[in-house]
Amino acid sequence: KAGVTQTPRYLIKTRGQQVTLSCSPISGHRSVSWYQQTPGQGLQFLFEYFSETQRNKGNFPGRFSGRQFSNSRSEMNVSTLELGDSALYLCASSFSGPPYEQYFGPGTRLTVT
Amino acid sequence: AQTVTQSQPEMSVQEAETVTLSCTYDTSESDYYLFWYKQPPSRQMILVIRQEAYKQQNATENRFSVNFQKAAKSFSLKISDSQLGDAAMYFCAYRSAEETSGSRLTFGEGTQLTVNP
After folding, report:
1. End-to-end Cα spacing for chain B
2. Which member of A33, A88, A101 has the closest CB to residue B104?
3. What pLDDT digit, counting tens, does each position of B50-61 carry?
4. N or C: which end of chain A has fewer CB within 10 A?
């Protein structure tokens, strides 16, 4: 079974621009979560989508948004990029029931200049 | 809100030896799940082991085992017969069993494990 895929793997953007990252979950997984990883803040939860609905949201500004499509693929969007948005963005997918194990993609490395 | 603490930023172990990574958490919930993830230099997060809070028996996966002390809110990872490939950042993570929490994981700060040949 194919794992979680994320595209693109690397991205360089300029401050003020916007960016869209994509995540394709493992087949059969309906839950997709996004995390931001930085050296200073560690791993922080952004949001989770389940059956095309946002089920949970972390403490991030409204510039961070996401959506999920009927095939469970998910996208996250960051508008008006700031230097502090430079991070590794990880996507994880899981089944909706126990044991709730999340499987992570390889991440998208975003650099904002 | 739940918090997860890993008090050892770095650990090292000799190849073939045993090492234990510490993790404590704070929660008022009685039902939850705990995980250890490994992140090698490739940055790919890999699930190492899972523990359900309602199970008293400690989870084991080959050379990896946990010591789950629910009352003490402690969840340590023991790696036996350490191998060079075990070198990575290890994260402890908490997941609530509450339906409203969804699949959200709360992570600790991580412990960088070095394996010396």
Report:
1. 41
2. A33
3. 999 999 899 999
4. N
